[in-house]
Amino acid sequence: MDIVLDVFDTFLFDRLYASAFPALYVANGKDEVQVAATSTFSSMRELPTTYHSPTQFWTLEPTKLFGLVVYFIFASLSYLFIFDHATFTHPKYLKNQVRLEIKQASIALPIMAIFTVPFFVGEVRGYAKLYDAPADAPFWPYNLVQFPLFITFTDFFIYWIHRGLHHPRVYKTLHKPHHKWIMPTPYASHAFHPLDGFAQSVPYHVFPFVFPLNKIAYVFLFAFINIWTVFIHDGEYVANSSLINGAACHTMHHLYFNYNYGQFTTLWDRFGGSYRKPNDELFKRESKMSKQEWEKQCKEMETVQREVEGDDDRNYGDEAKRLQKKML
Hints:
Strand content: under 5%
Distance between the termini: 49 Å
Oligomer: single chain
Structural class: mainly alpha
Radius of gyration: 24 Å
Order of helices and strands: HEEHHHEHHHEHHHHHH
């Protein structure tokens, strides 16, 4: 992520730092600038900044900002152009749900970023196996191999971490905040408990310490992960695939809790006996939004929810019922 750091340093952090702590200098007889100490050069047009405090003050995990930007841009685009707003009338849609999802994500993402600082520092200081140019790869085809290798590695470990988060001893404390959203919107994609979100992100951060990874590919994969996480919460069931863990598979997870823990594929769910094929009705708008399908979903969901959580403390309010009467 040092590429992200370079971009933020160049266009934001150095300028902010230079403004907050102006350089201390004295001019000599030749109108030259004599600098007491410097930390960074913001640009060729600016004076070097006097060392005031460690630059980590500004560079404390810039992916915090990057992640928030990616989240809000793609969740908003998905919400506006892909997400079916008829979901608002689903009986399990919560009162003020979008506002609550955004609030939870806005709290979680900065805290998650702080937890990842040790990984980030290790990358910047050269402990990771990140490389700059394609020519620096172990062998040239590795520049292509790294992508499926990254997906396979992270998908495997996220499956087991996610499944572990459903253990009764940790579920209610750590993972239930994300399962508050029975019928999620794209904004639910990052609406986690911070420790939950961090735990599921660990494989992404560990990978470049185990396997070589191109720096540009790392940034691309970081963006892809966040966009994918939005898309599997958008309720648009495009991928009717036995291999891809798309939005339909993940909807089954939010509805019925104990199935489809995978992130990208269904491979490990099949291996672990937790795969559940999405209902065929989900792939036709007329049936996926029908009152009959929703009643069937709610009946089974309520049974499983009582087994997993006990009493349901969600606030569905009267909003969904009122909209449902209006639209159905």
